[in-house]
Design brief:
With 450 residues, the chain is of the alpha/beta class. Helix 2 (38-50) runs parallel beside helix 3 (64-75), helix 9 (254-266) runs parallel beside helix 11 (337-345) and helix 11 (337-345) runs parallel beside helix 13 (407-418). The chain is globular and about 65 Å long. It starts with a helix and ends with a strand. The protein binds shikimate-3-phosphate.
Length: 450
């Protein structure tokens, strides 16, 4: 029956996801797993590629973004076994030993691939690299990493004052710096730390509030000498470092679980258990935000898996209330703001999301796109320079909306469509495969007529 609710037309060049809500509404029930964490997947492949010896990885995200990372590092000499096997083996080259590739490195849609990789490339003396990405990535700001790397002595060239890919990099022996980042960004922090692996002395980064710390955890596990001052949000790496291959078990991605948390939280008669989700405190802003809205979510079976906290999440429907989300909470839920905006549509009263201007430079301008696409469904959403103002309680009508090729927009709109009357079609729905290739399958499995 659920096939009639969720339908994917895999036409060329773009897929259309159609969601037809039965007149009596629908409910979500089930026990599910989400794909591997995207941030941890990238880092496991990268550190594996530059460590000495073998790294074994289980639970890697088989999405387009980690494939981009794997291809780039294979092109620089890392030996990576079949990504679809249960255990993946990466034979690393040792820090500083990436080979000069014979062609352009293509990071596809992945900002994490490009920005983290830049730190490594800039610090490989006597080698030349060119890097690029898809239309979205070539329009995203690279100056946030090019500028600190240049301060360290890096030689990087690109369009618009070296701020846009394609970029050309002539690897150098770099100098250590302390970089006070003006934004809380794990990509900026990780880029500088990765460069620091090849630099003699202390390389440190501080940020205005704490961004995800997967790099710090994994660098330590691979043997780097790294210290953290949590009060100053400052990380210091003592270089040069040698890394040793490790075993990494990648937990489920809380950014993917977020779609189901919100779907069940806003849909009467729904209850879901999402197993094996990473609950690193630098990533659980979505749980805190939904708690502020009075959602019914519990953590079960909490455990530590290769250095990362993991739990099963149980979510049941309960009426939500609007709230204000701002400040240091935003970096801890940076990728979940679009789906949180969907939750706010079904909360009583107003929700105000502030301090979220970073969303304008993600895979799309997520503030503008979410506001315009939710308005097409009849939502009461106002776009502000640094956030969204959402009045809950307006009923949504099915309509035609567009992902703007952004994976998180495609999936957020699909969840909004579950609570719209009639039929919603999401254009360019194939974008979801960047982080969640089986999103539609899971959606079809858990949706039932109410
Ligand atoms: C990521 C960091 C975040 C996040 C992105 C993944 C990472 O980006 O939005 O999806 O893996 O380091 P910023 O560092 O630009 O905030």
């Amino acid at each position: 029956m659920s096939a009639a609710i969720v339908h994917l037309t895999e036409a060329l060049p773009h897929h259309v996801l159609t969601i037809a809500v039965p007149s009596g509404g629908l409910a979500l029930q089930g026990r599910i797993q989400v794909p591997g964490d995207k941030s941890i997947s990238h880092r496991a492949l990268m550190l594996g590629a530059i460590a000495q010896g073998e790294t074994r990885i289980k639970g890697l995200l088989l999405g387009e973004d980690p494939y981009s990372t794997a291809r780039c590092f294979q092109a620089m000499g890392a030996k990576i076994s079949d990504l679809e096997a249960e255990w993946i083996s990466v034979q690393g080259l040792g820090v500083g030993n990436l080979q000069e590739p014979t062609n352009v490195l293509d990071a596809g849609n992945s900002g994490t691939t490009l920005r983290l990789m830049l730190g490594l490339l800039a610090a490989q003396p006597d080698r030349f690299f060119t890097v690029t990405g898809d239309d979205s990535l070539r329009s995203r700001p690279m100056s946030r990493v090019v500028q600190p790397l240049t301060q360290m002595g890096a030689k990087i060239w690109g369009r618009q004052g070296n701020s846009l890919a394609p970029l050309a990099i002539k690897g150098q022996s770099l100098n250590p710096i302390h970089y006070a980042s003006p934004i809380a960004s794990a990509q900026v922090k990780s880029c500088i730390l990765l460069a620091g692996l090849m630099i003699a002395g202390s390389t440190s980064v501080s940020e205005p509030s704490l961004s995800r710390d997967h790099s710090e955890r994994m660098l330590r596990a691979f043997g780097a000498d790294l210290s953290v001052d949590p009060e100053q949000c400052r990380v210091t790496l003592a270089g040069p470092a040698q890394l040793t291959g490790q075993t990494v078990i990648v937990p489920g991605d809380i950014s993917s679980a977020a779609f189901w948390l919100v779907a069940a939280a806003i849909t009467p008669e729904s209850e879901l258990v999402i197993e094996n989700v990473g609950v690193n405190p630098t990533r659980t802003g979505i749980l805190d935000a939904l708690a502020l809205m009075d959602a019914d979510i519990t953590l079960e079976n909490e455990r530590l898996v290769t250095g990362e906290p993991v739990a099963d999440l149980r979510v049941r429907y309960r009426p939500l209330r609007g709230c204000r989300l701002a400040g240091s909470l935003i970096p801890r839920m940076i990728d979940e703001v679009p789906i949180l905006a969907v939750a706010a549509l079904f909360a009583q009263g107003k929700t105000l999301i502030q301090d979220a201007a970073e969303l304008r430079v993600k895979e799309s301008d997520r503030l503008a796109v979410m506001a315009s696409q939710l308005q097409k469904l009849g939502a009461n959403v106002i776009e502000h320079a640094d956030g969204l103002e959402i009045e809950g309680g307006t009923s949504l009508q099915g309509s035609q909306v567009d992902s703007y090729t952004d994976h998180r927009i495609a999936m957020s709109l699909a969840i909004a469509a579950l609570r719209a009357t009639g039929t919603t079609s999401i254009q360019r729905a194939e974008a979801a495969a960047v982080s969640y290739p089986d999103f539609t399958k899971t959606l079809a499995k858990i949706c039932h007529p109410a």
